[in-house]
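Tokens for chain A. Residues wanted.
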């Protein structure tokens, strides 16, 4: 089918709370209506359909495959229903998918009869292409190893080299959804507006993008509206107009929505966070499955949507980009990165950019905060004073043994940062750069920095400054090496981490104690939770 030259009349989107309505961009050819569950997407779509009844065409695999005729009467597309009512024995079709099969077979039969009549009059009459031909060809494109056969007026399917055919009832839900969409789209009116409900349902991600690209290419004359909450599907519609529905006011039949700006240089992570967010977004390091960050922070910062991005650089860039778009999404969002070996000036700079940095070196150290150790010990019936004293002495001894190595790593970090800053300048010629580098060594002063750090670290050990040690001590094995798990009556590091998470999930008094300790570590004021435990009595 050739691309239509039809100019779509302006489509006015449903009303907003202030009485205004947005106009769909005139160059839109596929539109994704997206938002969180309960945001009012379906009602938004229904309002759109009623505003253009003569041009709208609906598709829903869920209703087509499962809804019985008695249940879906009036909910299937009127155009599709009117065509199927002309079928012989139309009342025998229980689902819209069965009606589709009937329509395709009837057209195929009529095409054959018509061809025979015309062939008798003119033997050179070519065979006309039918909708069934288009469906079979598209099916092969989606599933190259599968065949569709027509035998005795019914559909049969075959995989690979297996010569035996099987009926449609043995197709998977995903295969039936594909078959339905490929056939139903051919009945959409010329220059129509196609509305697809939950286009991702039943479909494997590997098939989803290929299928919808194929369907859009089959009907380039149509404008497509997709209603979904699936972020992966939204990302697959490259160049689509995205309508972000945030909320619905049932009393006034108005919506809170926006047309998202063009993506430009916005990454998938930021874009999808904007689409899916109903709360401020908190970008963190690590991954969603394995990292401690992703397990801990959602339970501490419950007012945020927490999104793991991997590296600290991605977190910093994502937070900057997201907040640059604050005038659009109105969400005050932040990031969290480990302190690692950053100096106070670096930390202050990041915090001014809405990047939260804890007063400990890394995420493992947060789990070693005094209040958290005490809470886990008390929760398991141990004397929290005795447990913490032993843990504290163990950590201090570990730090004492590694003091020089830790000072060396901090020195290296500071020199690296200083070199990057001092070299990243403009020089008129090579002589100027050469002279600058020659003078740089004195400014770097690696030995002086190292000696001062060693002196400072020795003071932490001498005074038993546990909090300051956690602030500078980078050691991933700290939890295991401290033996905190065994002292709390647990078997290993993993069980200790699970215990902290379990206490937070229970959301009781002990969870408040842990949450308060983490907030304090980030310099966030919290209400005084009162008498937390034995040590404060």
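Reply:
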């Amino acid at each position: 089918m050739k691309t239509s030259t039809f100019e779509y009349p302006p489509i006015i989107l449903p009303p907003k709370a202030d009485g205004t309505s947005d106009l769909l961009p005139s160059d839109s050819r596929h539109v994704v209506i997206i938002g969180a569950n309960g945001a009012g997407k379906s009602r938004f779509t229904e309002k759109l359909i009623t505003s253009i009844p003569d041009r709208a065409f609906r598709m829903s695999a869920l209703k087509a495959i499962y809804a019985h005729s008695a249940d879906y009467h009036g909910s299937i597309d009127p155009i599709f229903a009117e065509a199927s009512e002309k079928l012989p024995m139309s009342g025998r079709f229980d689902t819209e998918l069965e009606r589709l099969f009937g329509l395709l077979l009837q057209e195929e039969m009529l095409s054959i009869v018509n061809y025979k009549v015309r062939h008798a009059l003119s033997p050179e009459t070519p065979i006309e292409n039918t909708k069934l031909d288009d469906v079979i060809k598209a099916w092969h494109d989606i599933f190259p190893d599968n065949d569709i056969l027509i035998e005795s007026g019914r559909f049969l399917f075959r995989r690979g080299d297996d010569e035996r055919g099987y009926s449609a009832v043995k197709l998977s839900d995903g295969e039936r959804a594909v078959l339905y969409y490929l056939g139903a789209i051919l009945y959409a009116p010329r220059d129509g507006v196609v509305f697809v409900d939950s286009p991702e349902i039943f479909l494997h991600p590997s098939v989803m993008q290929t299928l919808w690209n194929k369907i859009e290419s089959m009907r380039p004359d149509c404008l497509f509206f997709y209603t979904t909450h699936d972020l992966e599907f939204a990302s697959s519609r490259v160049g689509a107009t995205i309508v972000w529905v945030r909320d619905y006011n049932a009393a006034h039949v108005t919506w809170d929505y926006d047309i998202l700006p063009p993506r430009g240089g916005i990454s998938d992570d930021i874009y999808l966070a904007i689409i899916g967010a109903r709360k401020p977004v908190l970008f963190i390091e690590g991954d969603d499955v394995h990292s401690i960050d992703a397990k801990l922070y959602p339970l501490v910062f419950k007012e945020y949507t927490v999104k793991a991005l991997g590296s600290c650089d991605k977190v910093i860039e994502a937070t900057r980009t997201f907040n640059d778009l604050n005038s659009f999404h109105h969400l005050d969002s932040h990031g969290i990165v480990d302190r690692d070996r950053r100096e106070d000036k670096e930390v202050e700079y990041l915090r001014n950019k809405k990047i939260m940095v804890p007063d400990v070196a890394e995420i493992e150290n947060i789990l070693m905060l005094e209040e958290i150790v005490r809470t886990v010990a008390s929760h398991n019936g141990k004397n929290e004073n005795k447990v913490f004293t032993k843990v504290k002495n163990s950590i201090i001894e570990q730090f004492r043994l590694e003091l020089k190595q830790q000072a060396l790593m901090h020195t290296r970090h500071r020199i690296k940062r200083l070199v990057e800053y001092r070299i990243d300048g403009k020089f008129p010629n090579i002589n100027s750069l050469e002279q600058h580098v020659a003078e740089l060594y004195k400014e770097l002063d690696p030995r002086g920095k190292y000696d001062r750090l060693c002196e400072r670290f020795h003071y932490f050990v001498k005074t038993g400054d546990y909090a300051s040690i956690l602030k500078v001590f980078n050691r991933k094995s700290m939890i295991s090496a401290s033996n905190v798990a065994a002292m709390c009556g647990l078997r290993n590091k993993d069980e200790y981490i699970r215990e902290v998470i379990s206490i937070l999930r229970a959301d009781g008094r002990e969870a408040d104690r842990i949450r308060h300790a983490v907030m304090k570590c980030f310099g966030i004021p919290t209400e005084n939770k009162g008498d937390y435990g034995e040590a404060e009595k």
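Residues 244 and 275 are 6 Å apart (CA to CA). Residues 69-75, 528-537 have pLDDT under 50 and may be disordered.
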